[in-house]
What does this fold into?
Amino acid sequence: MLAIFKKEFKSYFRSMTGWIFLAVTLFFTGWYFRYYGLMGGYPYVSYIISGVLFIFLFCLPLLTMRSFSEEARQKTDQLLYTSPVPVWKIIMGKYLAVVVIYAITITVMSIYPWVLRIYGEVPMAENYLAFFGFLLFGMTCLAIGILVSVLTENQIIAAVLTFFTLLLGVMIPGISNMISINGNAFTRILKAFDLTSYMNASLYGMFYWPSFLYYFSVIFICLYLTGFVILKRRWHIATHGIMRAITSASGMLLMFGIIIVINIAVNMLPDRYLMKDMTYNAINSITKDTEAILDNLTKPVTIYVLADPETKDETIESTLNCMDDYSSMITVEYISPSENPYFYTTYTDTCPDDNSMIVVANNRSKLIEYYDCYQVQYNYSYNEQTGSYDTTDYQVSGYDGEGRILSAINYVMNSTIPKIYCITGHDEFTLDQDLMMKIENANFDVENINLLTYDSIPEDADMVFVIAPLVDLNEEEVGKIREFLQKGKDAIFVVAFSDADELTTYYSLLSDYGISVVPGLVYEEGRAYYNTQPFYLLPDIVNTDITQGIYSALRNKYVYMPYAKGLLVEEFPDVTTMTFLRTTENSYSKIDFETSAEQTDADIAGPFALGVYAEKIYPQSSSEITVFSSDYFLYQDVNMAVNGNNYEVFMNALFKMADGENTTSIPVKSYSFNQIIMDETARSIFSILLIGILPVVLLIMGFNVWFLRRKK
It folds into this structure.
């Protein structure tokens, strides 16, 4: 077999065939890499593979068209078949030769993620899984080409037949949809000839065993049929023993039957045994946190999905299947709204949209609206006629189905849910929708309250938020909050920068815990700020449980706090404090920030705390507070600038004070990616190397080899 392999492999590079294949495929893959990777900043190679798929459908037949056709045309096939080399070794030698040539292209393509990684974060596991899926797809196409080649003596006919066979395999999904959108018995049979759908799982980060089994099965069948055709043609065809069984029609049908049964049996296994999610955010599976919560379920939970079979959301269905497979306590039932339109009235008065879910357990239920399962970002434009902002476009930016479902399960399994009151009436900052979604998914019940209409904070409150008031609280309101804290309750305070006078009454709440607010606006010198603005702070992150997942000794993660005020922390005997965000020694609080950015004698020298946790011991209880010194810290675009780290710190503080009781939080699984930013010089260099120099060098080498052989 090795001798056959060497002979075939060298023959491709003694002619122009191998060189042309490599030059053409690498030219087009390089071009798509330039478009999607270098210019578009996409870190996923699946875009490149999808783009060059049809190019490979044209090029792969060039490799296989001469495998056996040329032997038959030159009448050297009889010499080959009468050699002492077994037929299967001949087939495998020829097949591996074309596979290695194809693999050379994949090997060069595998450099692309490393190029992008120089300039940003790249999901390496997803990309190399996509390469592996593309490799198997190509190997399957080559096996089909080998089979077609053995059926004809004409290379051109072999190439054309191979191309149309592969094209038909790629078009099967479209043909099936034309026959029946919902599928039927005939389309299920057609699926056995679908070459691309089985590759899609690997392109989207799913290691799916049935897909790989399918490709290996097709490869085996094609090579088996190739051997079957060859043995039937040999003048000394075997007439006894195992060779007769292999070359008989009944033996062939038995072999195919075994392969089909194996594929069907594997596909019947639960998804958790067949599928491994290799996406960076586990978009198609459930997280370890979810598994831990499902492990602790003591009573059954039923999830009703209000969807007809043809309208089911595949992502939600995947999440529910993973939960159902993982835990025997989870039961998923699909209710058809068209057949049972009033089913929801048993649990809610609100008519939900299709694909909404109702989670039921312990005589409690919770409705999960379908559109709450996705995070949506809207684009706005200012309308001068109406004086308001109109929505111009939107984009689904993340999937929150797992978090919503888990939150609902936790809700129906627990009778008590932590209650948070947001203090209003002083031009406070309104929490962003994404942050509110995180808080609600963590099973906190949030409600706004104006203390002027209450004698005290309600008894069911576990915590209060005072989020960046621009108008000072009065003594009566502060007294109500202070009384609430003395009962052993907790609070999160956010300080806002404004042109107004210092909010001395509000700040007195913080001084009870040894925390004082410094006048002015914090400026940084050196490199601890963002985008050349010294008041766009990137504070030092202290290693604490509140900064867990954010702190790194390499400082490769950031928290972003624009327009922050400085905090000073004083030691009190009954108070324990912990600073988790702070400025550098080069910081100062600018008092007169409008005239000059330069530090003056009137400015207050740092360093300052920007995030502080404190616990105060009272005679009968203890109270915890967390203070953030910037309201901009909670803006959605500010949070997105540091990949969600701001919200993660906020949620960590919330969990610390709630002690994690009856709370859970699964982050929204983002569909977006960090765009690769590359300077024009680097983009040009890599483009010239991959699109220009490499293909041209290959063609020159091929022409040189061909020309020297012609001279001989």
